[in-house]
Amino acid sequence: MSFHGANVLAFENRRSKEMAELVRINGGEAFIAPALIEVPIEHNTEAFAFADRLYAGYFDMVIFLTGVGARYLHRVLASRDGEDRLPQALRTVTIVVRGPKPSAVMREWQVPVVVQVPEPNTYRELLEAVKDRSEKSVALQEYGRTNHELLAGLEKQGRTVMTVPVYQWSLPVDTGPLREALQQLLAGKFDVALFTTGVQIEHFLQFAEQQGEREAAVAALRKTFIASIGPTCSEALREAGLIPVLEPSHPKMGLLVREAALRYTGGN
Q1: Do residues 162 and 49 share a domain?
Q2: Domain boundary, last residue among 113, 136, 169
Q3: Which of 35, 115, 203, 228 could form a disulfide with 96 if both were Cys (CB 3.0 to 4.6 A apart)?
Q4: CA gap 23, 17 in Å, rounded
Q5: How many Å apart are CA 170 and CA 251, to the nearest integer?
Q6: How far apart are CA 33 and CA 178, in angstroms?
Q7: 195 - beta bridge partners?
Q8: Which H helix or E strand runs over 29?
Q9: Pairwise CA distance, residues 32 & 18, whole Å
Q10: Residue 192: other Cβ atoms inside 10 A
């Protein structure tokens, strides 16, 4: 089974070439329109404020949501405090990681992980994983946007939370591919739409709204076979009024493409 020559729309940025190749080897024709770029926060006063509190013993739990964010936070702080100060301080607190990527970073830094959030790694699993923990003062490394449900859940558990944003999302400088994707979508040219993060649908519809075509874009996407990489992404799609047909067995890009190709039958 494969996409059988279907036209597949995806919004991947960092791994766009890999996404296109995965679609190709699974029998599809890929159109990649990057919908976001990661923009490091310059003059990150929040990061340095977090470090000062961490070094002073203010926190008893630090939650890392992404490996990319953990590494960038380290680079920012190392510019002032040196390479070793952050890992040393983290060894004195309870470390919670949302998935395998931040876990791998902690291993590199020789920082013990106390709580590994199980798949599918949404805020719900995170809240469940820490619900019986006694730690009350928490630092939360964010991943581009604030998860208000996670914050509210941690506070409901009686915790004080400091968020530590390290990068944010922005539309690409070159929005030409997005413009072409929107035009082809409205013309009914795409059979399948693949999403690897909820920010992609938010940005695509933001761009469509700028063109006066948001409602038309949503209507057109409803006519495609929509595949989402996992529950968090699916939540963003549902908030936009879109129902994904498929989530892969594990939240991996290769499985997303392969399993979407296996499920696709020429219509949703």
Answers
A1: yes
A2: 169
A3: 115
A4: 10
A5: 23
A6: 5
A7: 228
A8: strand 29-32
A9: 10
A10: 26
Q: What would the two tokens of residue 255 be? A: 């499985």
Cα diameter, the chain: 59
Interatomic CA distance for residues 264 and 147, integer angstroms: 32
Angle formed by the axes of helices 214-221 and 176-186, nearest 10°: 60
Task: Give 74: exposed, middle or buried? Use CB within 10 Å, 0-12, 13-18, 19+.
Answer: buried
Does one domain contain both 212 and 100?
no
- Copy the structure tokens of residue 88: 């040393």
Instruction: Compute the mean pLDDT over every residue in the chain, rounded to the nearest whole number.
Output: 92
160-196: pLDDT as tens digits:
999 998 776 788 889 999 999 999 999 999 999 999 9
Amino acid at residue number 234: S
Residue 207 in contact with residue 240, Cβ under 8 Å? no
Give the integer Cα–Cα distance in Å for 19 and 10: 8
* Single-letter residue type at 118: P
In a domain, 136, yes or no: yes
Q: Which amino acid is at 8?
A: V
95 vs 116: CA distance, rounded Å: 9
User: What are the tokens at 25?
Assistant: 């080897």
- Of 169, 201, 217, at which residue does a domain stop? 169
Using CA atoms, how far residue 15 sits from 4, 22, 34, 50, in Å, is: 23, 11, 10, 31
Residue 205 makes CB contacts below 8 A (sequence gap 6+) with 214, 217, 218, 240
Which segment of 29-33, 158-162, 201-205, 264-268 scores lowest on mean pLDDT? 264-268
Domain extent, residue 64, equals 40-169
Is 140 domain-assigned?
Answer: yes
Whole-prediction pTM value?
0.72
pLDDT digits (tens, 9 = 90+) for 41-71: 556 788 899 999 999 999 999 999 988 889 9
